[in-house]
Amino acid sequence: MTHSKSILAGAVGLAMLALSSLAAAQEFPSKPIKILIPYPPGGVPDSIARAISAPVQAALGQALVLDNRPGAGGMTAVQEFLRVPADGYTLLSGDAGLWGVLPALRPGTYDPEKNFTSVANISTNSMYITVRSDFPAKNIQEFIALVKSKPGQFQYASSGNGSLHHLFMESFKAATGLDMQHIPYKGSSQQVQALLAGDVPIGVGGGSATSPQVKAGKLRWLVATTRDRSKLTPDVPSMSEIGLSDLNFAGDVGYFAPAGTPRAAINKIADAINKALQQPDVVQRVNTAFLEPLFRNPDQMAETVKADKERYAKAVKISGAKVD
Length: 324
Known about the structure:
Layout: H1 2-27, E1 33-37, H2 44-60, E2 64-68, H3 75-81, E3 90-95, H4 96-105, H5 112-115, E4 116-124, E5 127-132, H6 140-149, E6 154-158, H7 164-176, E7 180-184, H8 188-197, E8 202-206, H9 207-215, E9 219-224, E10 253-258, H10 263-276, H11 280-288, E11 292-296, H12 298-319
Parallel strand pairs: 1-2, 1-3, 6-7, 6-8
Antiparallel strand pairs: 3-10, 4-10, 4-11, 5-8, 5-9
Helix pairs in contact: 2-10, 4-12, 7-12
């Protein structure tokens, strides 16, 4: 009889534990969720977080606290994130630089596949090979022919050594057999100013930094750095159109949770993000920041991270980029 009671008590205990776990999953979130952003206010991850925060908060019934932690190329936020509990209440806003470039530049510091859990991809954006309006080549085919005819005579600007811009252009050079000198600047705004001043004839950067000058007729986009054309710049050809479909350098942004975070919590956040990205006013806000909404669920985002890790590790090797 005693043995039967102990079995019954054990079964009741297990059932209560299962019910409490289910209740905890259903109750998530029961407090505000912090979003660690590895860059200063005004950048792409910050802009997209602000564009979606209100509808995501409404769907979850809890506040999103945006916490900008710039420094060390993103490592300041990553180091903080690696210390937080895996409960879904602290997320990391990441971009392709954080999940692809930084691990390749700093091997052994963290592995986005092992240390992070993908929650959702939120947005994407193309970069562009950009020239001054008076640059002699009028399209990307003429550009390749011109640069090839004068090896080592052209310089290009990027927003920094080891940046996505730098890695793309070095990969593009390797794929097309071009010889250009890299001139790194501190950020996109300095690069654009250098282009406008004629200090350097060629640049590669995001659309948000260059679109005002393109609209003003001072700069021209020659080609997008992504496999397909951007919906925001339908007249600008893509990599696949010039026979380089393997080059797909997209500025994706997404959210991560710590490894081991309960799947129920991750799914709840992902669903809220998906709903937010379907609202017309959110799409408009995202587009205004020169970004395209792009939702990928946790499994799809994990596949993107895996592919990008390999892509950017190869690009870092081609470029010879080192951490400054």
